[in-house]
Amino acid sequence: MTDVSNTDWSAEHSANLYGIREWGGGYFDISEQGDAVVNAILGEKTVSVPLINIVNGMKERGLEMPAILRVENLLDHRIKALNEAFANAIEQGEYNNHYRGVFPIKVNQQCHVIEEIADFGQHYHHGFEAGSKAELIIALSQLRDHDSLIICNGYKDTEFVELGLYARQMGIPCFFVLETPAELPTIIECSRALGIEPLIGVRIKPSTVVDGHWNGDSGDRSIFGLSSNALLDVVEQLKLEDMLHCLQLLHCHLGSQLPNIRNIRSGVLEACRFYIGLINEGAPMGYLDLGGGLAVDYEGASSNSTHSMNYQVLEYCINIVETVRESLDPEGIDHPVIVTESGRATVAYSSLLLFNILDVRNHQPLPLPESLPVGSHELLSNLFAVPAILSLNNFQECYNDALYYRDEIRDLFRRGQASLRDRALADNITLAVLAGITALLPEVDRVPPEIEHLPELLADIYYGNFSLFQSLPDVWAIDQVFPVMPIHRLNEQPDRQAIIADITCDCDGKIDNFSSPDGQQKTLPLHSLNDSEDYILGVFLVGAYQETLGDLHNLFGDTNVVSVHIDGDDSFHFVREFHGDSIADVLSYVEYDPRTVQEKFRRVAEQAVRQGKISVATRQKMLNAFKESMRGYTYFEH
After folding, report:
1. Distances (CA, A) of 280 to 23, 272, 283
2. For residue range 551-570, what is the model confidence (pLDDT) as tens digits?
3. What is the pLDDT of residues 10-55, one digit of tens each?
4. Are residues 22 and 133 in the same domain?
5. Is 312 a domain residue?
6. Which of 281, 411, 473, 508 sits most deeply, having the most CB atoms within 10 A of its CB?
7. Is 43 helix (H, G, I), strand (E, B) or coil?
8. Would you call 56 exposed, middle or buried from its count of C-beta atoms within 10 A (0-12, 13-18, 19+)?
């Protein structure tokens, strides 16, 4: 932690400590008053709103923590930034076609998110990617502009194909992307039955292997896409059916969350060779879909590590445009419409999880007594002497001695030869030694491997009012890293190092890996709690996948959700409010009928009355409490 006295601590120090300006993308910062703010870029003006003000507005509306906050302005700006970056790259690169973005609905299927993308995106003809029948139904019902594309990925049955063909009949450019040759007969059969010609794309399997966590999407072992031979089989089948003119799109998904710009240029280059090959086979083509991959810098490190990115959006666009033009121009091939399916980079910034801290488990030692209590076990005197001699010259020896004597006393305790008070005192003395060694570590030239973990071992545990499995499932499932920080008190110096635990009954329900521009950290600097004041933390950049993938671990349901829009007069207004699941809701999700559950409890209470265990009046209080709990929030309520 930065060596600054608390009286000299400022919001600027907190900005550097949490790296908010590195990972915030200009959308988040800290005010001089010490509050985290969200920035809305409105033309030439930037409006900053403290997140704590939004939280207070939520509380006034009966929306308690935890909650998902969506900021419409950020979603709109991401769509604008992507489309205008491609427009600039196309103009600068003298590219003779245009760009069409599509949003993969799987990344965030929530109705308000999709509605906002459809509404704001129509200005840029921004469409949707659908990987299932349900998602295609969403796309068909929400799309505002019929110059926007619908890209149908995934495996497609007859019903799926029919829906897409009806879209085509209505004038919507809806492409069926073949994931396997087995889909083609279904498309041909449905097309002839309905008398509607399809728009067909083929997904190829590039050999380029990319960096990052999701590189399984790339290379020869990718589970998606056609091999070179399968691609030629599709071409031959379309020729036989006199439908080769329907093949107009090449799809090449380079990978997800691509941190390294070099991978993007290599993948686009290979995709262009396939595109040229299909032109030479007689397919008219016209569209080049490069899938997703545009990354989000969760760490703010501007590097090619898994949770970062070593490029900006404009550089990404320029690399794609230049590579396509330089590949096709020597062949005399017209430039295709460039399509990308950026999901994560579109929605990640627009949502954050807010939750309050319920309790703290302090892992610091209690003050040691001046002398050992009378009757203490004799081994305690050896352990008690260690803190007094601890120094920079002997910390390794003191570490070894403390653990040895502590373990000896624990063994004696297990055999009934040491008391509970002996055990507790031994644990506390050892903790004091470990804390003393930790304080010396910044002065140590080389920290022994067995001691490196001490800061993490001594970190406090801050218990947050949320479920990791419901709200941040990727933290548990794939070790995803998100920026986490307090949203207020940022003009005070944090005085604790902590990890964060949720309120599920699961040892995996914790965050113990935190993003930082200096590399991932095992603990997070936080403030000591103040009495009678909520301490609110925010987990940022959670708009992609987290709401959809959440589960009902311990029957913690969906959180409260609010959407706000920031206005030009420095104010904001609540656009949508969604109350989270009640206990009755989540019981119904796992096949309990809430009315039946309540009736069964009534019988239990009535039986207790008949047995004389409770009075009728007490029974009524119990039934009212049970009924009220059924209507209550699944999370901790004040």
Report:
1. 45, 12, 7
2. 999 999 999 999 999 999 98
3. 999 999 999 999 999 999 999 999 999 999 999 889 999 999 999 9
4. no
5. yes
6. 473
7. coil
8. exposed
